[in-house]
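Researcher: Next sequence.
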Amino acid sequence: MKHSAQRDAVREYLKSTKTHPSAEMVYEEVRKQFPKISLATVYRNLSLLVELGEAKKVATVEGNDRFDADTSEHYHFICEECNAVLDLEVPFAAQLDVEAGRNFAGTITGHEVIFHGICPECKKHYVTGGPVKISAK
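Model: Next structure:
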C-alpha cells in the first residue's frame, strides 16, 4: 500500500483524541494541516484504517458513524442529549459470546454493546428526578 501523508494525519488525529470523532470532525481537524484535502478522502482513509484494524467504527442512532483509534475490546456509551461517544471502563465480557452461542446454530465471532443514557456533562444540567433542564444564568 502506498504511503499517504494524509492517511497518517487522519490516523494521528484519531490517536490523539478520545472524543470518537465523526468523519466530518476528522476532516475539520486534518484540513488545518492539509487545506486541500476532501471529505471524501477522509472517508476513504477512515474506512481503510477500519479495514486494516487500526480503528473501529462506532455506529450511532443518528446514523453519523464515529471512529475510535482504540481497537481493544471495550464498550461505548452514547449520550442521548449531546450525542457524545465515551469509552466505558468496564471489563469486556468475552464469555457473552459463548453464552449467546449456546442455543444458536451459527457461529458467534464477537459482539458489540453500546450503552445509552445521559453523559456526566449533560447530567449536570438536569434536575434530580427528571429531565427538566436548568436554564443558564
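Model: The radius of gyration is 18 Å. Residues 72-137 form a domain with the Dna Ligase; domain 1 fold (CATH 3.30.1490.190).
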